[in-house]
Write a structure and sequence with these properties.
By secondary structure, the chain is α+β, with helices and mostly antiparallel strands. It folds into two domains: about 5-85, F0F1 ATP synthase delta/epsilon subunit, N-terminal (ATP Synthase, domain 1, Sandwich), CATH 2.60.15; about 90-135. The chain is built from two helices and ten strands; from the N terminus they run ββββββββββαα. The strands form two sheets. The chain has a five-stranded mixed sheet with strand order 2-1-9-8-5, with no helix packed on it. Strands 4-3-6-7-10 form a five-stranded antiparallel sheet, with no helix packed on it. Helix 1 (about 90-110) crosses helix 2 (about 115-135). The longest helix has 21 residues, at about 90-110. The protein is elongated. The model has no long low-confidence stretch (mean pLDDT about 80).
């Protein structure tokens, strides 16, 4: 049996995940980082991307993370992200974004919208791309 370590994933709103893992794959600004038990300590910056948690060589959880930080200790990994969206929420998020874009297409094209809304639209498009690329795996 592989050595396990504890993982905590926290968003600005709540604790998203707290549990054991054999391996996690994290999107960082330096590229994807694979972490196993007894990994060397480090602190890094997240980039928007897909976080995967493995247990027993099977992917147990997957989620989208936005900007934030990761802290790795030999037996504990803590991930702090501004936004975390679980994979099971992708369909609802993509549908909401598509509906909004369809309903407000003329407004979006004709006028500048606030930064938060622009970022949400970009995120939902990225989620759609991630979901499509994951289907190809």
């Amino acid at each position: 049996m592989a050595m396990r370590f504890h993982v905590d994933i926290v968003s600005s709103e709540s604790r998203i995940y707290s549990g054991q893992s054999d391996e996690i794959i994290v999107p960082t600004q330096q590229g994807e980082l694979g972490i196993y038990a007894r990994h060397a300590p480090l602190i890094g910056f997240l980039k928007p991307g897909f976080l995967r948690i493995f247990l027993g060589k099977k992917e147990k959880h997957s989620m989208f993370v936005s900007s934030g930080f990761i802290e790795v200790q030999p037996h504990v990994v803590t991930i702090l992200s501004d936004l975390v969206i679980r994979s099971e929420e992708f369909d609802a998020a993509a549908a909401k974004a598509a509906r909004y874009i369809g309903e407000h297409k003329n407004e979006i094209n004709k006028q500048a919208i606030n930064k938060e809304l622009a970022l949400q639209i970009k995120l939902y498009r990225m989620l759609g791309d991630i979901k499509q690329s994951k289907k190809g795996l």
